[in-house]
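Morning. Coffee machine broken again, so started the prediction first thing and wrote up yesterday's gels while waiting. Chain of 55 residues, entered below exactly as on the submission form.
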Amino acid sequence: MEEEYYISIKEKLLKSEIYDKVRDYEKDRNKVKIYYEIGELLSKAGKDYGKNIIK
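Came back before lunch.
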């Protein structure tokens, strides 16, 4: 009986850890995508970017 509780608890903890890692991966993946898109926009803006921002 105790063995069943141990196995059940262990499985729940493992599932929780896996879920957390997947969620962290998704957040990191989204950040990389956003930074890539910002980089593309800055690249397209070219040398004129920031010309009127700093006076």
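Residues 37 and 43 are 10 Å apart (CA to CA). Going to sketch it on the whiteboard this afternoon.
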